[in-house]
Design brief:
This protein is of the alpha+beta class. It has one domain: Alpha-Beta Complex (Aspartate Aminotransferase, domain 1), CATH 3.90.1150. The protein has four helices and six strands, in the order H-H-E-E-E-E-H-E-E-H. A six-stranded antiparallel β-sheet has the order 1-2-3-4-6-5. A hairpin with a 2-residue loop joins strand 2 and strand 3. Helix 2 crosses helix 4. The radius of gyration is 13 Å and the shape is globular. The model has no long low-confidence stretch (mean pLDDT 94).
Length: 117
């Protein structure tokens, strides 16, 4: 099992690796200073030592977890990628909307901050 996000991403074929690297950049742009770790065997980005967003690579898609609550515009944007209640699935045979992944990560961070006491 990989111990770092670098090892996790390196375990994929080059085409998937490229997509995961770009998704990682999008998440880090939205969550500057996020920690990185492996949790449940996949990439996890943390804030304050708590998991915020997960990124997973698969043979035909990448996934981002969890799905934040958003306004109507965000809900409409993520609707085509919603695979389950808490999962967004981005097929590798179509352009990956990295800007949307960045928006999702930013919204998850905002939700965390709104919930903080």
């Amino acid at each position: 099992m990989p111990e770092t996000i670098e090892e996790y991403i390196a375990s994929f074929p080059p085409d998937v690796r490229t997509v995961l690297e770009e998704a990682r950049r999008a998440i880090r742009a939205a969550v500057p200073g996020a920690g990185e770790t492996i949790s449940y065997g996949i990439a996890s980005f943390t804030v304050g030592g708590r998991h915020l967003v997960y990124l997973a690579g698969w043979k035909r898609h990448i996934s981002v977890y969890p799905v934040p609550e958003g306004d109507d515009a965000l809900e409409a944007a993520i609707a085509p990628y919603r695979a389950a209640k808490g999962t967004l699935k981005f097929p590798l045979n179509k352009p990956v909307p990295y800007d949307l992944i960045e928006r999702v990560a930013a919204r998850l961070l905002a939700q965390r901050e709104e919930a903080a006491p």
